[in-house]
Amino acid sequence: MALFEVIKKEKDDDNIVWKYPKMNFNTGSQLVVHESQEALFFSNGKALDLFGPGKYTLETNNIPLLRKLINIPTGGKSPFRCEVYFIDKSEKTMRWGTKSRLEFLEPKYKFPISIGACGELRFTIEDSRKLLIKLVGVKKSFDYENIDDFFESQILVKVKNYIAQTITEKEICIFEIDQQLEQFSNDLQEKLADDFNEFGIKLNKFFVTTIAKPEDNKQYLEFKELYFKQTVAIAEAELSQKIELIKEDTEAKKTVMASQAQATKRSQEGYTYQEEKAYEIGKKVAENDAVGQFTNVGVGLGMISGVGGPISNEVSKEVKGAFATMNVRTCPNCHKQIDDGAFCKYCGAKIEIATTCPKCNAPIASDAVFCSKCGERIR
């Protein structure tokens, strides 16, 4: 045995726990603990003195638990025998996956299905003593493979049960399950935290990244096609409905804008909506082919009697024109236009004054007793 030993972990590897190969030391030996490490002295199945990062000279005053257990005398350079473990305290990341598939009945379409799950987890060693006592035992090293064995036996059973139970209870469609991965991850991290903590491991993050579906299963593929056809049909219907609503909204806004523009125009030109409508009615009356029907003219004049301003002037022009047209006649001899009268003022020819049948409005001679068209008695 060397008089003084330098106890340290030289190589950088994947070992989370690494056991120093020698077991016999003297007090006065040097212990070197690197950053993100802890060194734990272990003897007779007991975890004893613990050292964080730094350089230490092993003396009886800084290994009190070890000194007491193996009765190391104080003072001088005393030999002692124990195991020294180096524990990596940095955050570790590892992949996980179910080695067997979950079997359950798909809750929406009611067909049997089997799925797998995989993901990633991040952890740190929080309690080195607890880890050594409960998990490492007499192993010289403890790496990712050992953690994987621990995880498979202690943890994956809960992962599989949780996923199958949650899918069934919440009736999560297998084709929508990827939307639940974040919730699965959060729930499982909470559920598994105590299981990791029992072994001195802190579970920092737990991710379910993939749910493996049976893409080679014919029945699964048939339902998958049906699901996506339904999804597309619903999406198209919703889009069509939104487009129709946008069109209706646009037309409504156009109507409002047109009304506002027309109202502004009336205000600027000094008339109202009622006056505008009365003008339109008067104009139609004036343009009526049955100009000679004084009853119609009277109705029109009554309706527009209250119209004033520029509208009134326009109506007056239209009505005057209509009446002017009513008084125009043509001489049958010289064919010049003449006013009402019994003789032509140009050639002196006698003008037969025609009248109309009160029943059918057909022209009749002034001395007729009966209408030649409908037989109505005139006098």
Structure overview:
The protein has nine helices and 18 strands. The chain has five domains: 6-88, no CATH class; 93-214, 2-Layer Sandwich (Tetrahydropterin Synthase, Chain A); 218-269; 271-327, no CATH class; 331-379, no CATH class. It has helices spanning 64-70, 128-136, 144-154, 156-169, 181-197, 218-269, 273-287, 294-303, 309-327, and strands at residues 6-7, 17-19, 24-26, 30-33, 37-43, 46-51, 54-57, 79-81, 83-88, 92-97, 102-105, 112-125, 141-142, 201-212, 329-330, 337-338, 355-356, 363-364. It has a five-stranded antiparallel sheet, sandwiched between helices. 41% of the residues lie in helices and 22% in strands. It has 379 residues and is α+β, with helices and mostly antiparallel strands. The model is unreliable at 289-301, 303-307 and 322-327 (pLDDT under 50). A hairpin with a 6-residue loop joins strand 15 and strand 16. The protein is rod-shaped.
Write the layout of secondary structure elements.
Blueprint: E1 6-7, E2 17-19, E3 24-26, E4 30-33, E5 37-43, E6 46-51, E7 54-57, H1 64-70, E8 79-81, E9 83-88, E10 92-97, E11 102-105, E12 112-125, H2 128-136, E13 141-142, H3 144-154, H4 156-169, H5 181-197, E14 201-212, H6 218-269, H7 273-287, H8 294-303, H9 309-327, E15 329-330, E16 337-338, E17 355-356, E18 363-364
Parallel strand pairs: 1-4
Antiparallel strand pairs: 2-9, 2-13, 3-8, 4-7, 5-6, 5-9, 10-12, 11-12, 12-14, 15-16, 17-18
